[in-house]
Design a protein that fits this description.
This protein is mainly β. 4% of the residues lie in helices and 45% in strands. It has 4 domains: 44 residues, Membrane-bound Lytic Murein Transglycosylase D, Chain A (Roll); 164 residues, Sandwich (Jelly Rolls); 71 residues, Immunoglobulins (Immunoglobulin-like, Sandwich); 86 residues, Immunoglobulins (Immunoglobulin-like). The protein has 2 helices and 34 strands.
Length: 414
């Protein structure tokens, strides 16, 4: 016989070299925990653009420097995935690590499948994706200037006040920002720009004329036009994709989309923060089925997807929070001989737990359905030997999919 009880087991973000805000956290307490100096909380507030320090949102990721205040004219590497290098004139390349300070004159270069997230003194954030090179030309609270030497860069810039300036230079253009989220990349002799929020003014290096890209617009600028953007076509970005499936498993890590009219494919990016400022991996799909990596560690992730049009402009982003479960569930023995079975539950899902002595589950000792839980305590077991367990899920309470996790329990023979 098997007796069991079940309750909700709440999931949590996988461990990160930063701080994930929990209910009840304060900047004062976080500063004391990380720096051992509670009075440095304004530094964390500035570095992470916390608008109201008394209203920290649970789940927000806060980044820190290497334990010392940043110097005047320094920016900070907030996160690194893969290999990247810091280049300074007359010095050998240095591997980029989280918390590293960088300054005007430094160049940051990323390898394929690598990302660097840069925190700037004015509170802006820039993500340098794979195979990209960016030079920091000006670094300050009132002026930030970046030069895109190759690849791309995506920036989130807070609203500018009088006297503040944020611009990115490509080989032939200058993009000036007044508070926005935008992407820019060099591609085959062309500069491609897309604006998600706010507006960006684009002018040539040698031309006074400019155009303004508003939210939901993009354009492709030909460097052969003498650096004059005025002749470029301003296009409306494709709509954000909608998700038709939201369930991910280690054996079938796929997401389905509704087709976006005019899309030639879909670019996606995965991160563990809701702003996608610390990306882990990115990819491209020619169709509406996204094959995500199978080697993601168990935990919650944010997926951002954008449709790509015939001009290779990325559209407005669609975002999804999903959980990658463990390929095998966890088993914890209790002191009284009972066993706790753990799997990762998701809000809105119901689960079915099955336990059998047979690996093919021909005879079930337990078949518990419609569970709003991510764990169960079973036992004590009367008979020794091996027991098998598995968990499947449902959205309608009736139709259960294939088991997504499970394992075995070896009970000592008494």
């Amino acid at each position: 016989m098997v007796a069991f009880a079940a309750w909700v087991f709440s999931g949590c973000l996988a461990a990160q070299p930063s701080h994930v805000v929990r209910s009840g956290d304060t900047l004062w307490g976080i500063s004391g925990q990380h720096y051992r100096q509670p009075g440095r909380w304004p530094e964390i507030q500035q570095r992470n653009n916390v608008g109201e320090p008394r209203r920290l949102q649970p789940g927000t990721v806060l980044y820190f420097a290497d334990g010392r205040p940043l110097g005047e004219g320094e920016a900070m590497v907030l996160a690194v995935t893969g290999q990247a290098w810091q280049r300074r004139a007359g010095k050998p390349d240095v591997p980029v690590v989280q918390g590293m300070p960088v300054q005007a004159g430094d160049t940051l270069a990323t390898a394929p499948d690598a990302f660097v997230t840069l925190g700037l003194p004015d509170g802006s954030r820039s993500v340098i994706p794979s195979s990209s090179t960016v030079e920091l030309q000006t670094v300050g609270r009132d002026r930030v200037g970046l030069r895109l030497l190759g690849g791309g860069i995506e920036s989130q810039v807070h609203k500018r006040t009088a006297g503040q300036e944020f611009h990115i230079r490509s080989r032939s253009l200058v993009l000036s920002v007044r508070g926005t989220q935008f992407r820019v990349r060099e591609q085959g002799g062309r500069t491609v720009g897309e604006v998600i929020e706010g507006s960006v003014a684009v002018r040539g290096l040698q031309q006074p004329r400019q155009i303004v890209l508003e939210a939901g617009q993009g354009s492709v600028f030909d460097s052969g036009s003498g650096g004059d953007p005025a002749g470029a076509e301003v296009r409306t970005l494709l709509a954000a994709p909608r998700f038709t499936s939201r369930t991910v498993s280690p054996t079938s890590p796929g997401i389905e989309l509704e087709e976006v009219p005019g899309a030639q494919g879909y670019r996606w990016r995965i991160a563990q923060d809701d702003s996608i400022l610390a990306p882990l991996v990115e990819g491209f799909s020619a169709g509406t089925s996204l094959a995500l990596p199978k080697d993601l560690q168990p935990g919650f992730y944010y997926l951002r997807v954008a449709a790509v049009d015939a001009a290779d402009l990325e559209g407005m982003p669609g975002e999804l929070l999903f959980y990658m479960p463990s390929p095998t569930g966890s088993v914890r023995w209790k002191d009284d001989g009972r066993v706790e079975l753990l799997w990762w539950g998701s809000p809105g899902k119901r689960y079915r737990l099955e336990i059998s002595r047979d690996p093919d589950f021909a005879t079930r000792l337990v078949d518990m359905q419609d569970m709003q839980a991510g764990s169960a305590i079973v036992g004590p077991f009367v008979l020794g030997g091996r027991y098998h367990w598995r968990v499947s899920e449902t959205e309608d309470g009736t139709h259960y999919g294939e088991p997504f996790t499970g394992g075995s329990i070896d009970v000592p023979v008494r």
